[in-house]
Amino acid sequence: MTSRFWTIPNAISLARVAMIPFIVQAILRDAWMTGFVLFLIAGLSDGLDGFIARYFRQRSRFGTYIDPLADKALTIAVFGAFAADGIVPVWLLVLILARDIAIVAGAMLMATRGAASAIRPLPISKVNTAILIVFAGWLLAANAFEWSLPNVNYALIALVVFLTAVSAAAYVRLLVGGLSGNAAKQVGQPDET
Fold this sequence. Notes:
By secondary structure, this protein is mostly helical. It has helices at 8-28, 32-55, 61-84, 90-112, 123-144, 150-179.
């Protein structure tokens, strides 16, 4: 892992962050096809930066932070726009935000108690983020192509709620273990970007 800041994966992650306001603006203006295409590019860039980081040995400390933060910023901003537009219920946005705030607060608490080494993304959290991105992509595509499949929306909302609850429980377990000195038993893998 390098300490270099300017790597191709980091530039791609920063470009993804820069796309967020344009995606949100497209959603709020009902420019669904534009929002869908921009979101698709952002999603593909997430896979591309990870591939480049791993296969071209451009992993960096900054990348381990910016890549998951870019994903979180994208999902929160997009779901915020969906909630503002009435596409998803506000309580779903609150649930997503509450989980992320709790994770950050728990990580900060662990860091202040000397258990910073146990702060890693858990596999269930990565699955949760992936499903949120799939759900956002589905909602953008459904609106862009004028598909009306409410059962798919309900099923994805239920899956997001379930995974958010499981992920939150896993982080609570990690936090309790980390604060009691059992942080070494943590099974999550560090993000490789």
